[in-house]
Design goal:
Blueprint lengths: L1 E7 L6 H8 L2 H4 L2 E7 L4 H9 L5 E5 H9 L4 E8 L4 E7 L14 E4 L5 H12 L8 E4 L3 H10 L4 E5 H9 L3 E8 L5 E6 H6 L1 H16 L7 H8 L4 H10 L9 H13 L17
Parallel strand pairs: 1-2, 1-3, 6-7, 6-8
Antiparallel strand pairs: 3-10, 4-10, 5-8, 5-9
Helix pairs in contact: 1-9, 10-11
Length: 283
């Protein structure tokens, strides 16, 4: 039995992986998937890839591209979620701010440097024509840290996936002032280069299993109820999320990679663009 250590966020996007593990789908292909949960998100997964703590990451597209350019010895093998990620822009429920424009020159809570919450703070600032060079950040680790930071006013706003934070909005912990969608497919599957060299066949089999699951995911009986129960979501929110979310079984296109690198370069988040061959690996 071949083992692959796979990292991902504890969010509804990754339920296909968990169902495939629970249903024994990977075992039929002589694979053992060791799942590692990362509440801290993309920055934590990038560090885990670099430290060889995981072999595979289901990770934000812009975050892994930035980190590969910075030296992460990994490659993107496939798009996982083709639709944009809808980042909610949140403030504390008792905050004085009432619209996104009020947040200019305030401090953003981020999980860590290089995380999605960090990078998307720049995209949000660019969308509103703020000076991105003057952005300030409070590193909070994860969503619990963001709750503490916003409540104590050590940071004033926080970008996180809209539906994941919806229960906090419903409970009156956060208020959402707006949304910031990613202008590209949101999640990709990245694999350490060493693993691609040593266990390429296992990676191919892994992708076959998860792609089979994502193709039919929306047709699973009572999938909305299952998602709502597992992820503490209201049924109407899950139905809305499912309607705007699409999974992929294909590689990123050259146009998508160019768009991401152009945006990261424009915001001074990367020093240079890399050739596509340095970023992706076609199995």
């Amino acid at each position: 039995m071949r083992t692959l250590r796979v990292g991902g966020v504890p969010e509804h996007f990754n339920l296909p992986w968990h169902l495939a593990m629970e249903d024994g789908d990977f075992k039929y292909n002589h694979l053992h998937i060791e799942w590692v949960s990362f509440p801290g998100g993309t920055g934590a997964m990038n560090a885990a890839l670099r430290n060889k703590e995981i072999d595979v990451a289901i990770i934000l597209t812009e975050g892994i591209i930035k980190d590969i350019i910075a030296g992460n010895p990994s490659k993107i093998v496939q798009t996982y979620v083709n639709s944009p990620l809808i980042w909610g822009i949140h403030v504390a429920a008792e905050s004085e701010f009432t619209k996104v424009e009020d947040l200019e020159n305030t401090k953003a809570a981020i999980s860590r440097i290089g995380s999605g919450s960090h990078l998307m703070s720049y995209i949000n600032a660019e969308n509103h024509h703020w000076d991105t060079k003057s952005l300030e950040f409070e590193i909070v680790g994860d969503i619990d840290g963001a709750v503490k930071a916003l409540t104590e006013d050590s940071a004033q706003y926080f970008l996180w996936e809209r539906f994941t934070t919806k229960p906090l909005v419903d409970r009156g912990v956060f208020r959402r002032l707006g949304d910031c969608p990613t202008p590209w497919p949101c999640f990709v599957i990245a694999v350490r280069e060493e693993v691609l060299e040593d266990q390429k066949d296992a990676v191919i089999e892994m992708l076959k299993v998860v792609n089979t699951k994502t193709i039919s995911f929306k047709e699973i009986p009572e999938i909305e109820e299952l998602l709502a129960n597992r992820y503490d979501q209201k049924l109407e929110d899950i139905k809305e999320w499912l309607a705007i979310t699409s999974w992929s079984q294909s590689q990123l296109t050259s146009e998508e990679i160019e768009n991401i690198q152009v945006n990261l370069l424009k915001l001074n988040l990367i020093p240079e663009k890399l050739p596509i061959s340095k970023l992706i690996y076609n199995l």
